[in-house]
Design brief:
The complex is a heterodimer of chains A (about 250) and B (about 325). With about 250 residues, chain A is α/β, with parallel strands linked by helices. Chain A is about 35% helix and about 25% strand. Chain B is flat, with a radius of gyration of 27 Å. Classes of the chains: A alpha/beta (about 250), B mainly alpha (about 325).
Chain lengths: ~250, ~325
C-alpha cells in the first residue's frame, strides 16, 4: 500500500434498513487527485462521501482515511474529521457567528490555535476565496454563492488533506454557480485533493482526473473524463449523459 | 405581527356599520343598568335635574352621553398612528382600573405605612426565591433536554420519569411534600430552601421540554457541519446548537419566569415571608384585606412588566444574526 493514498474504500456496503444504498464500493483517492462523482439521484453518491468522514456509518467493508480505519468503536473520529474538509449543499454556516468567526472557530477550538493566529489564517483563506471584505458580516447577509465560498474557506482553515464537496452548487442560482466553481477550480489547480459530488459536467471535464459514475449503489464507471464523456462503457452512463447533455 | 395585507382600505372603527352597532350596544347596556345614582348621574345634574327624580329620561340621557363619549373616543383613536393608539388604549384601561379600585374607598395612609415593608421584605423575597429557582431550573432543563434527546436508555428513562412526575403533580402538593416529607427522611429543611427546591424541580420539568424543543428546532445540517469540522459533542451543543436555540428558548422561558414569579406565592403556605404571605397577614389585624391585596397585586404586576421588558431586550439582542 503506497503512502500517498488518502482515501481507500474496500468492498464497502451500507443499508438503510432493508434497502441497500452502497454495494461493494471499491475506490481509492491518491494525494492530489481530483475526483468527480456523479450519477442519478438516489444512487448513493452523497452517502458514499459522507462515509468518508463518518457522518454516515458503513456496515461492511473497510474505509481507511489518512491511514486511520473508520469503524464503530473508533475513539478518534475527530482526528479523521479535522483532516477532511466537507462542503455541504446548503452551506451550513453557523448563523450566529460572523463570517470571520465561522472560519476561526475550527482551528481555535480543535487545534488550540491562538485567536490572533486563527484570524490571520481565516483572512488568508477568505482572501483566497475572494471575499475578505465580508469578514465581519453574518452569513444571512451574504448571497448563496458568497456563503458557499465562506464554507469552503471555513474548511480550508483546518488545512485538510482532502476536501469533500457534497453537491456544492445545487442550491445556488445559476449566476452564482460559476463563482463557486471558479473557486473550486483554482483549489484544484493548487493541488488540493478533492472528491466532489456534482452534476456540473463542464467542471468535471475541465478539472477532474477521474470521473466516477454511480447507479443504484454501485460504481459502474470509473475513468478519465475524456473516456467518460466520449466513450462511456455502461448503458446506464450513456442514458445519463444523454439526459443531462441534452439541453 | 400577523401578515399585514395591503388591500384593507378602511379602518374597522371608521366603518359606519361598526360605529352604529357599537353605539347601539353600549346604549342598550347602559340603559339596562340605571346609572343615575352614580357619579355619572351627579355630573349630569345640570341636564337632568335631580338624578334620583329624573326617571326614564335621566336614565336615557346618561346612557346616551356615555355611548357618545365612548364611540367618539374609539373613532378618534382610530385616526392615530399605531403606537399612539396602543399607548392611549393602555392609558384608558389603566384609568378605568384605578377608578374601579377607587370605588373600594381604600385607606391610603394604611397602604403608605405598610408599603415599604411589603417591598423590602415581600417583593425582595419573592424576587430572590424566583431568581435562584429559575437558575437552578435552567441547569436542570439543559441536562434534562440533552438526556431526553440522547440514545442512552438510562438517561432518557430518568429524564422522562422526572418530567412526567413533576409536571404531573400540583406545585402546591410538591411544596408540601418537600417541606413536610423530607424531614420524615431525616433531612430537616428550612422553608425558603424547600420552596426553592420545589419551584426549581417543577419548573425544571417544564423547561426541560422547552429546551428540548429548542434544540430540536435547529437544523440537522448545523450538527453535521460542526461534527464534520471535528468538534465533539460538548463544543457542538454549547457553542453551536444552544446559542442558536436560545432565540427559540428565551420567549417561553421568559414566560416561565413570569409565571414562576407568581407561583412563588405558593410557598407562602409554608410560612415564607414573601409578597403573598405579607399580603394576607398584614391586613388581617385591622380587617384591611383589600388594601394589602390590591397593593400586592400591583407590585406583582409591576415586577412582571419589568421582566417582560427585560425579556424583549434579550430577544432583540439575539435577533442580531437574523437581520439582513
Amino acid at each position: 500500500m503506497s503512502m500517498d493514498l488518502i482515501i481507500e474504500a474496500k468492498d464497502v456496503a451500507k443499508w438503510y434498513g432493508a434497502f441497500q444504498v452502497l454495494k461493494d464500493i471499491n475506490l481509492t483517492v491518491r494525494k492530489g487527485e481530483r475526483i468527480v462523482v456523479c450519477g442519478p439521484s438516489g444512487s448513493g453518491k452523497s452517502t458514499l462521501i459522507r462515509c468518508f468522514n463518518r457522518l454516515e456509518a458503513h456496515q461492511k467493508g473497510e474505509i481507511i482515511v489518512n491511514g486511520i480505519t473508520l469503524h464503530d468503536k473508533m475513539r478518534n473520529v475527530a482526528g479523521v474529521r479535522k483532516n477532511v474538509g466537507m462542503v455541504f449543499q446548503h452551506f451550513n454556516l453557523f448563523p450566529h457567528m460572523t463570517v470571520l468567526m465561522n472560519c476561526m472557530v475550527g482551528p481555535m477550538w480543535i487545534k488550540g490555535v491562538a485567536a490572533t493566529e486563527a484570524k490571520k489564517t481565516a483572512l488568508r483563506f477568505l482572501e483566497r476565496v475572494r471575499i475578505p471584505e465580508q469578514a465581519n458580516k453574518y452569513p444571512v447577509q451574504l448571497s448563496g454563492g458568497q456563503q458557499q465560498r465562506v464554507a469552503i474557506a471555513r474548511s480550508l482553515c483546518m488545512e485538510p488533506a482532502v476536501m469533500l464537496f457534497d453537491e456544492p452548487t445545487s442550491a445556488l442560482d445559476p449566476e452564482m454557480v460559476s463563482e463557486v466553481l471558479d473557486t473550486m477550480t483554482s483549489l484544484a489547480r493548487d493541488g488540493m485533493t478533492m472528491v466532489c459530488v456534482t452534476h456540473e459536467m463542464g467542471f468535471a471535464r475541465a478539472v477532474a482526473d477521474r470521473v466516477i459514475f454511480m447507479n443504484s449503489g454501485q460504481i459502474v464507471e470509473d475513468g478519465n473524463p475524456e473516456m467518460f464523456f466520449t466513450n462511456p462503457q455502461h448503458e446506464r452512463t450513456k442514458l445519463f449523459l444523454s439526459q443531462i447533455l441534452k439541453h | 405581527m400577523l401578515y399585514p395585507d395591503t388591500v384593507e382600505a378602511e379602518v374597522l372603527v371608521h366603518k359606519p356599520w361598526f360605529v352604529a352597532t357599537m353605539f347601539a350596544v353600549i346604549l342598550a347596556v347602559f340603559l339596562a343598568f340605571n346609572l343615575t345614582g352614580t357619579t355619572m348621574g351627579e355630573l349630569m345634574r345640570p341636564v337632568i335635574g335631580d338624578p334620583l327624580q329624573s326617571g326614564l329620561y335621566g336614565r336615557f340621557a346618561v346612557a346616551f352621553v356615555v355611548a357618545v363619549i365612548f364611540s367618539l373616543n374609539v373613532v378618534l383613536i382610530g385616526f392615530a398612528p399605531l403606537k399612539v393608539q396602543i399607548a392611549i388604549v393602555w392609558f384608558e384601561l389603566l384609568m378605568l382600573f384605578l377608578a374601579f379600585f377607587e370605588t373600594f374607598h381604600l385607606s391610603r395612609p394604611f397602604i403608605w405605612e405598610k408599603l415599604p415593608f411589603l417591598i423590602t421584605q415581600g417583593a425582595v423575597t419573592t424576587l430572590y426565591v424566583s431568581a435562584i429557582s429559575i437558575v437552578i431550573a435552567s441547569v436542570i432543563a439543559i441536562l434534562g433536554a440533552v438526556a431526553k434527546l440522547s440514545t442512552n436508555g438510562f438517561a432518557y428513562a430518568i429524564a422522562s420519569f422526572y418530567t412526567s412526575f413533576f409536571r404531573g403533580l400540583p406545585l402546591l402538593m410538591q411544596v408540601y411534600l418537600i417541606y413536610l416529607g423530607l424531614p420524615q427522611l431525616g433531612f430537616v429543611i428550612d422553608a425558603v430552601p424547600a420552596g426553592i427546591l420545589a419551584l426549581s424541580l417543577c419548573y425544571g420539568a417544564y423547561m426541560t421540554e422547552i429546551f428540548r424543543s429548542g434544540i430540536q428546532s435547529i437544523d440537522r445540517g448545523q450538527w453535521e457541519a460542526s461534527r464534520a469540522i471535528g468538534f465533539g459533542f460538548g463544543i457542538t451543543i454549547r457553542r453551536i446548537i444552544l446559542p442558536q436555540a436560545l432565540p427559540v428558548i428565551i420567549p417561553p422561558t421568559g414566560n416561565q419566569f413570569i409565571s414562576m414569579l407568581k407561583d412563588s406565592s405558593l410557598v407562602s403556605v409554608i410560612g415564607v415571608w414573601e409578597l403573598m404571605f405579607l399580603a394576607r397577614t398584614l391586613g388581617q389585624k385591622t380587617f384591611q384585606h383589600m388594601e394589602m391585596l390590591i397593593s400586592t397585586a400591583l407590585i406583582y404586576w409591576i415586577m412582571s412588566i419589568c421582566l417582560e421588558l427585560i425579556q424583549s431586550r434579550i430577544e432583540r439582542h439575539y435577533a442580531r444574526s437574523k437581520v439582513r
